[in-house]
Amino acid sequence: MIQAWIQRYGRRRRLIAAALAAIAVMSAFVATRPTPASTVLVAARDLSPGPLRPDDLHPTPLNHPPAGAVRTAAAGRVLTAPMRKGEPLTDVRLLDSFRLPPGLVATPVRIADAAAAALIAPGATISVLAAWDGGQPARAIAEGVRVITIPPPAEHTSAHGSLVVLATTTSQAAELAAAQAGGHLSITISPNLK
Q1: Proportion of the chain above pLDDT 90, given as a percent
Q2: What is the sign of the dihedral through the CA atoms of 147, 153, 156 and 160?
């Protein structure tokens, strides 16, 4: 039977081999074909957290954009973390896309020492201390809170310190507001242990 098969199809084996080779080449071409480029917004220069201006980002075609890449206008939206020139903007970098866990609110506070605020970045875990005039010792009023964003220093730094937005509970937010009204806020920085 094998002998009969060889006699019958042996003459066609070159044709069969050529057809299989063609199928292999086509399969390799389809597998390695580049995906069509998708236009996303990328940083036009190194960017600091804060409101985005129209010239901060420009559309660029990318073959493999990251998940959540922003493709439409982002001017006026708030960037929560620094970006390097050429880096694609993703939805998790924007404050309006940032999802706080249930029970937490975004709380802006002014840290008295702007230089201390420059030591932290979005995602850092800090504790906020309050000190009042009159010689009372400082006390912690919000411990282990996460930094959401730090608006650009040029726009929000004053003689009264630097603005920082924190994820806090509503009771921590109330204590922070009361402490800001009559005292000065400072921070301690916790190591981010994973």
Answers
A1: 18
A2: positive
Q: CATH 3.90.1210.10 residue ranges in the chain?
A: 38-97
The C-alpha angle 189, 192, 194, rounded to 5 degrees, equals 165
Query: Which helix (H) or strand (E) element contains residue 181?
Result: helix 170-182
Backbone phi and psi for residue 114, each to the nearest 5 degrees, phi listed first: -60, -30
CATH class of 38-97: alpha beta
Alpha-carbon distance of 70 to 147, in angstroms, equals: 23
* 85 DSSP assignment: T
Q: What is the pLDDT of residues 91-131, one digit of tens each?
A: 878 876 667 778 888 899 998 888 888 888 877 899 999 98
Helix (H, G, I), strand (E, B) or coil at 46: coil
pLDDT tens track for 135-166? 778 889 999 998 888 776 654 445 568 888 89
Half-sphere exposure (Cβ direction) of 33: Cα atoms closer than 13 Å: 8
